[in-house]
Amino acid sequence: MSQRTDLRPDRIAVLSVHTSPLAQPGTGDAGGMNVYVLQTAIQLARRGVEVEIFTRATSSDDEPVVEAAPGVLVRNVVAGPFEGLDKHDLPTQLCPFAAEVLRQEARHQPGYYDLIHSHYWLSGQVGWLARDRWRVPLVHTAHTLAAVKNAHLAEGDSPEPPGREIGEKQIVSEGDRLVANTREEARQLVELYGAEPERIDVVLPGADLSRYRPGDRAAARAELGLDPDEQIVAFVGRIQPLKAPDVLVRAAARVLRDQPHRPLRVLIVGGPSGTGLDRPDALIDLAAELGIADRVTFLPPQPPDQLVRVYRAADLVAVPSYNESFGLVAIEAQATGTPVLAAHVGGLGTAVRDGVSGLLVPGHRIDDWAAALGSLFDDPARLRRMGAVAVGHAAEFSWEHTAEGLLDSYAQTLAGYRGMRSRPVGTLQAESSQARSRALWRRRTGVVRR
Q1: CB distance 34 to 8 below 8 Å
Q2: Are 138 and 118 in contact (CB under 8 A)?
Q3: Which of 333, 341, 295, 317 is nearest to 234 (CA)?
Q4: 3-state SS track over 373-419
Q5: In the chain, which end has fewer C-beta atoms inside a 10 angstrom radius, N or C?
Q6: Closest listed residue to residue 179, CA positions, set 412, 7, 417
Q7: What is the mean pLDDT of residues 290-298?
Q8: Does the pLDDT value for residue 443 go beyond 90?
Q9: How far is residue 16's CA from residue 46's CA, in Å, rounded to a whole number?
Q10: Distance CA 156, CA 242 (A)
Q11: Could you tell me the pTM of the whole model?
Q12: How far apart are CA 396 and CA 356, in angstroms?
């Protein structure tokens, strides 16, 4: 569209404080957000937008600057110790991180970056400061929200701290534009955080459709050392209570209790993360306690070129999470022709076409999950039909589409920001100060604006 062409940014600063886009998904805090940041940066660069990603260095071996792809630079910022910092400790390192981000821009002429895009609330705090300093707009993507996670906690999991929710509300108030992964996330931003609907753009994430595509199932199983005749359900992701791999293991045990001779295998691909690090062997122990240790295979996190084999090898991929802002694994699996069995939470209702490309299970009752597993494996013709449809459904999601949506959002942001900047500076500052003061007073007093 002409507006986007006129207002396309030349160079943007992308902030991803707590996890690097170069990290292996499925380890530590690395997951779908890493993939999102890197893949959208690559697609934006292919469209002529230079992207510089700022992330925190986690090793002394990290080069200060890495060219991830043509037009995409990753800047590893030293902020705090390289190792031993939990995600919840990172707010203490936002000051040194922000200082280095500001120094980098100060080496150039004013206006070096046209726009800031921050990912996750920690990055939003830095982006808010840089926005005011550089006088460029801030676009923010939350990816996950504390209020939503705390409302859907797994049993025994630790809630997100109050400071995070406060920080998220500040960013929602201060950001020039918010990009939500799904309409459900946009609704949550409005209802739980008071976001203005007109400042939210819904841009669906995608998948690398050139990599994740159907292939030879028998060959994939042979390469992974899996039995060609077993019924295989795979879990791919970080092993932590939020992702609920234990729900899948318990459901499989329930199925095998009633049908011990069923050739069912659970394939777990990923590593301990978050509160899962407190008991890194908990899932292995659970499988042993349930008497199905010989039916559960564990693999470490797999790079993309090898992960595609996992998806192809499986008859079914399970995503039993207690919350997902989108569910990238679900799209990747479907792109290879593998149906998905997922919890009906968050963005998974968008990622999976219920009853068509997979099944959505309401809640996390083990009996419900066991019944869903059994019903799908008992109807191989239905699984095949779902797999065929899944490929077409996943084709609607691509990083190319995501990048185009982001460019549209950036254009809207720049148009609005330049429109505001064209007014007298004193007037803008006064109006901004008054508006923020009124908003702060309403929050503190509980007054609802009518």
Answers
A1: no
A2: yes
A3: 317
A4: HHHHHCCHHHHHHHHHHHHHHHCCCCHHHHHHHHHHHHHHHHHHHHH
A5: C
A6: 412
A7: 97
A8: no
A9: 20
A10: 10
A11: 0.87
A12: 15
